Amino acid sequence: DLDRARQLLVTLPAPKICQILRYLVGDYWRRYLGWPDLFAWRGAESIFVEVKLSHDKLSEEQRNWIEGNQRELGLDFDLLKIHKNPGAIRGAHDP
Q1: Distances 68 to 35, 55, 63, 76 between C-alpha atoms, Å
Q2: Which end of the chain is more exposed for a tag (fewer CB within 10 A), N or C?
Q3: pTM given for the model
Q4: Per-residue pLDDT for the chain (95 aa), expressed as one digit of tens each?
Q5: How far apart are CA 74 and CA 16, in angstroms?
Q6: Where do the DSSP E strands lie in 5-90?
Q7: Are 78 and 49 in contact (CB under 8 A)?
Q8: By CB neighbour count within 10 A (0-12 exposed, 13-18 middle, 19+ buried), where does 19 fall?
Q9: Cα(82)–Cα(92) distance, integer angstroms
């Protein structure tokens, strides 16, 4: 978690970090859970990504985070659904 926090600090602008901290402090016990699985960045661009398998559903905490983000934070966010395709991935020794 410390490494992720450090990366956020060097990637996101200081006003956005302050906004995230104010958001957390406003209702910490309800808001500290449900954050997306991934934080990806390239240069100044960044995005938070929640990864779900095709049969997985968002938890209550994840839905709360998405709603809070839309309402208060405005962080770039996407949901990535992974669908299993049994014939698509083969090992090196498979024909």
Answers
A1: 10, 24, 9, 13
A2: C
A3: 0.81
A4: 788 889 899 999 999 999 999 999 999 999 999 999 999 999 889 999 999 998 999 999 999 999 999 999 999 999 999 988 766 655 555 55
A5: 9
A6: 38-42, 45-53, 77-82
A7: yes
A8: middle
A9: 22
